[in-house]
Amino acid sequence: MTFPFSLPTTSHLLFPTHLSSSTHPSLPASASSHREILRSALKTHKRLASTEQSTHLFTVLSALESYLPFLFALDNGLSARTDIQIAPFSDISVEWRPTLSSTNVPGRETPRVKGTGLSYEIYSSLQTLATVHNLLARQQLLTLYSPTAPPDSTARLTAIQTALKNLLTANSIHNYLLQRSQSQPPSPPLPTSSTDLSPSLQSSLSSLSLASTTLLFVLKDDPYPPVVLQSHSKTDKEWMIAAPSIPKVRAHLFARLCVAASDHAAAASAGLLSDPKVSSELRNYCSDLAKTAKAKACRFLGIDADVAGRTGEAIAWLRAAKCTLDPSLASSFSIPSQSPSPGGKKFTSLKSSLSSAREDRRIARGASDWGLDAGKHEEMRILDWLERKWVKMNDTVNVQLVPELREVVKNMPSGREGLERSVWKPPEMDGGELGRMRAVGGGGGGDGTGFEGESSGDDLEQELGVGDGGSVRRGPVGAFPGTKDEYEYGYDDGRGNGGTSRSERRAYF
């Protein structure tokens, strides 16, 4: 499960008051129009209920994708990287609200941070785009844990693939921002109070998204989460027919991938510790995600041992995973021959069932803060389910000794990277749309005006009524076009019946 990010809000910004273009005069105004659509979408999203925000994310994404080509066209014009000529005549000043900063007053939003320069607008817009992709991935993953309507295998695979695509896009955007800050330092510098845009936080967010993507790659082929979810579903009746089939998995490979994900999450957590302004929820989430990934690695190593017939070692790996998620359990597993008392087992089982019921209700009502534990609860349910199964099998059939935890933990393998870091590419404007914004060029007309068929200057003076002395003869206000002479000299119907002039009619009355 991804972190429950929140979208920012921003202030008004009119590019024509700060920039002008001699080659594409309407480009700043068009960029302002698309930015106003984005600003309105962000403002509307903030006011919606949490159940309605999930469907509104696509509106925000569409507004961002329409606005970014115009924004980068202005940036390329200022940097003289294209034939677009942009001339600044005042500093751009805009406000964005940071969403990952800690607040001194609980319940109060972080105030908006005012920054100058086009780079501040670019960084803030791209950070918003990465947040939208993270939220879209979170929305897809939320459907996998629905207690009332668990998805089938096809819907589950589609949701995971869509979430994987969104997380990869978010990771590439963070990599682009980090690379841009190193190769093209923003000028003027970004405000220090904008924590979301700092290079250290972007590096941590890149590691965090890479860890989530790696775990999602493992989740695609992990058969145990849907089996455990099916066992907790009240509407499931398949257990009356047959036991759920669990296919074999590449347990050792998945374990190494989870170790790599744990390392990325730990690197993100270490990077956030250096910045005290970052939200404590994000720091705790990175720490919990590292524990969850390591617990998954222990579980897959236990599955590998169980397939090889080493049930005692498999149980030890499960208990090592549970101790990783909850260090307070280490004392109960310190002596292998000692087992908890029957009363303690009943109390632990009751506590686990109450916790599972509470989490199911949170998922059913779509709680916005669900998932802040980075999947620790879901992983603990899988570990409890496997431990009950393997302990029962070991006590009745195999009767193998369970080794000490430190003996199995020291055999933890190294991590293996499953995905490569990619860098996001800025979008470019369509050639036809950019061509419509060009200024009128010189030459081409036979009269030297630029276009064929254009009226000359003498015709324009005659149409406006400019005399030889340069004075303008204006017609009466509200008169029909072309009837100015009739008001002055009278109306003639073409049959010799002249009418009275305006001055004569006035003298008559």
- What shape does the CA trace take? elongated
The largest β sheet comes out as: 2 strands, antiparallel
Roughly what is the average pLDDT, rounded to an integer? Answer: 79
Radius of gyration: 34 Å
Unreliable spans are 239-243, 335-341, 441-464, 502-509
Tell me the span between the first and last alpha carbons.
88 Å
Number of DSSP E strands: 4
Helix amount: 40-55%
Structural class: mainly alpha
**How large is the count of helical segments?**
16
What strand order characterises the main sheet? Answer: 1-2
The secondary-structure element order is EHHEEEHHHHHHHHHHHHHH
Q: What share of the residues does DSSP label as strand, in percent?
A: under 5%
Looking at this protein, list some descriptive labels.
mainly alpha; two-stranded antiparallel sheet; 509 residues; 16 helices
SSE topology:
Layout (H helix, E strand, L loop, with lengths): L18 E3 L5 H21 L2 H29 L7 E3 L4 E4 L16 E4 L1 H25 L10 H31 L15 H21 L4 H9 L18 H23 L6 H28 L3 H15 L16 H23 L11 H23 L6 H5 L21 H5 L21 H8 L19 H6 L12 H7 L1
Antiparallel strand pairs: 1-2, 3-4
Helix pairs in contact: 1-2, 2-3, 3-4, 4-5, 5-7, 7-8, 8-9, 9-11
